[in-house]
Amino acid sequence: MQAKKKYMPMWIWIIVWLFILGTLFNFVWPFLSQAKNPVFYVKADGLYVLPEGKEKSFKIADSIDENDVQQSPNGKKACFLDDNQNLYIRDIAENKENKFIDENVFSYTLINNNEIVYLKNEQMWLYDGKENKELDSNVNSFDVSNDTKKVIYIKNDGNYYIIGLQNGDAPEQYTIDSGANVISNKGEYKKFVFIEGNNVYLKEDGKEIVTIAENVDSAFVLGKSFYYFKGNDNEKVLYKLGKKGEEEVSNVIENELTSWSGKGIALLQSKNDEVYVLREGQVPYLTVNLQNVITRPQISNDGKNLYVLTNNGIENQSNLVKYKIGNDKLYGEKKVLENAEIYTYWLNNNKIFISTGTAEQQGLGVYKSGKYKEITKSGYLLGDLKNGIYYIDESGAETTLNKYYMGSVKKIDTQIVNYGFFGENLFYTKNQDLYWSKNDKSKKIDTGVEHFVFPSGLPQFPLSI
Predict the structure, then answer these.
(1) 0.90 cut: is pTM over it?
(2) 3-state SS class at 464
(3) 331-366 burial, b if ≥16 CB within 10 A, otherwise e?
């Protein structure tokens, strides 16, 4: 009788494949992500760069305008102006030589990892990675659209123009005065909303300008909706532009918005210092009166919660309260920290960082998952990374740089002078030496370092303050 074959159970195969995929990911990912967050810093002889994942830096310029260093979205290219307004681009991932772009450059924007739009002698040019092409003349200033396909700019005649970055595209005049108050994102050229005089206009891509509201005092965009105030100092009414035209939203909110969230939620204030929540498409409702709070309320990044710092009637003490934001009311009141000397607080993703004490001496704590934890009685926050919370501790005999993670504290170094977050990496200087805090250990990278340079192109500081 033939023996029956035995097969490995499916659940074991799944574990084996997950292990193999995880190993491959950990091996390949550093190469895929390499150079996304290079470190730029200045020494006495010029500008240096340290590509992400590397431990050896190199010089890319002798002299630069530190306010005009930009990096590409993938972190592999860097642009800079030298002291003579010469524009260069460099492949820092491969450490290639600087490529000269043009001279007498006034301003520029590096886009799409390899293209540059720049101004020189009131002429607007495009470097497409191979050659320089003039886009227009008599240009005063410009903004690149969010999709990097077009440039919105102001000419010396005082009007807005738009031009595509494709071959053969011609400038289109928007006949919008440069003094107009543009309330939409300038990078969203497909819907350009602006106030000129007391009227609100809409310029959609490829269409004529139309008037969408008249006799307007102020306006704002919330999500995909457009809101505006009309009236005088004694009485203002909040309106919304609906599908059928002008719709009244409220006649009690008489001031502009004070805070908003990217999730289509805003806080607005009445003349009686009452704060209302306005959710896109909903009727605003009353939340708190500013006479009873210490600082203006804040909306969480996800738009789900409202935080209010209230006076509890005891000198130098207050309560930080959290509410859930509903469609027509607040609910789920929860005290984050009560009867405490709260100096200020910050919201960052799913955490709340609280600075306690006074301006002269502050402590630091964090609220997460319904619990508050004091980190130090004297110190301040540097940044919140995936691998921990970095802060300065001044409670001991010497000032230390520490990391707090999962309830434990790790001392990294003492007496640091300067610091910078580049992606998920912390770098700092001490006695003009540059260190990289890697795996909770400090590795010396370079000497004679004066300070960091934070180029535009990628956010360098992960904390939302």
Answers:
(1) no
(2) coil
(3) eeeeebbeebebbebebbeeebbbbbbeeeebbbbb
Nearby residues of 2 by Cβ (< 8 Å), 6 or more positions away: none
pLDDT tens figures, 228-284? 888 876 778 888 888 878 888 887 766 655 556 657 888 888 777 888 888 888 888
| Helix ranges, 315-431 (H) | none
Q: What is the dihedral sign for C-alpha 156, 151, 261, 297? A: negative
Residue 252 near residue 242, CB atoms below 8 Å: no
Instruction: Kindly tell me the burial class for residue 399, based on how many C-beta atoms sit within 10 Å of its own C-beta (0-12, 13-18, 19 or more).
Output: middle
Q: Interior CA angle at 323 toward 318 and 326, to 5°?
A: 155
> Residue 414: what residue type?
T
Q: Are 389 and 427 in contact (CB under 8 A)?
A: no
DSSP state of 82: -
147 token code pair: 């999709």
Question: What token pair was written down for 267?
Answer: 């806080």
What is the token pair recorded at 396? Answer: 């001991």
Which tokens is 411 given? 């001392």
Bridge partner list, 277: 267, 285
CA distance 88 to 33: 24
From 16-20, 281-285, 297-301, the region with the lowest mean pLDDT: 16-20
Token pair for 320 = 């930080």
Rounded distance between C-alpha atoms, residue 303 and residue 260, angstroms = 9
Structural tokens at position 451? 């300070």
pLDDT in tens, 129-158: 899 999 999 999 999 988 888 898 999 998
Q: Model confidence over 375-413: pLDDT tens digits? A: 999 999 999 988 899 999 998 888 999 999 988 999 999
169 sits in the region (left: phi over 0; alpha: psi -120 to 50; else beta) called beta
CA distance 448 to 45: 10
Length of the chain: 465
Q: State which H helix or E strand residue 15 sits in.
A: helix 10-33
